[in-house]
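Researcher: For the annotation table, I need structure tokens for Hydroxypyruvate/pyruvate aldolase. Please keep the output clean. Sequence:
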Amino acid sequence: MQERRNSVKEALAQGQTQLGLWCSLGSALVTEVMAGSGCDWLLIDAEHSPNDLLSVVAQLQAVGADDVEACVRLPEDNPTLVKQFMDAGARSLMIPNVKTAEQARQIVASARYAPEGVRGFSVGHRANRFGRVKDYHANAPRNQMLILQIECKEGVANASQIAAVEGVDVLFVGPGDLSTNMGAMHNAGADHVQQAIGSVLKAAQDAGKAAGILAPMQADAERYIADGFTFVAVGADLGLVARGSDALIAHFRKG
């Protein structure tokens, strides 16, 4: 048995834009609906959402039949969590608030087996189809994708060094935290925040890595894609349900 190729990782390496959707509601059924939309990837959020390891596994199972790459955002850069979620089948991980190249190197090491890293070894788990994927352990990095979030001034200042770390695939801007940490809460469009976002994009491009961003507003997403971001989240289940239901009721309440 062979592991399914990570087509998103391959497409990003060729400079192709990959569109994603955010899954925050903790529902396998909702995530399954989102996976059938035709998006290239989706993000199961375990940082700011009511998800745990078992609910994430249920969502990974729910989207398994779709041609979409399921990424998982961990709550922190904890090697134990990296091991647990990777063993559970989350091969594309997003790690929040990465500030330095040394932190990035430690994250890469936590995702790799010795001698390159420190990921704990288990013969059979969901990631290798319970021992059925031949040579999984030797070839695991081939289909793994590490997406490191830049969310503060220190991370922006060190973005070039972070992007240069071997094993880092994507630098991902979190506009909400970045703008908040730069004194512009709810205002990612502020000039100094936009300059920071642009510098992260340049750092990723200079290192030959992909740059990503969360942009649920269509105009923002189109602008960021035009600028060169290639790993772009263009919507979220929570926002689609909330705004859609708001608009529907408002329509019937008018007048």
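Researcher: And a one-line annotation?
Model: The CA atoms of residues 47 and 75 lie 4 Å apart.
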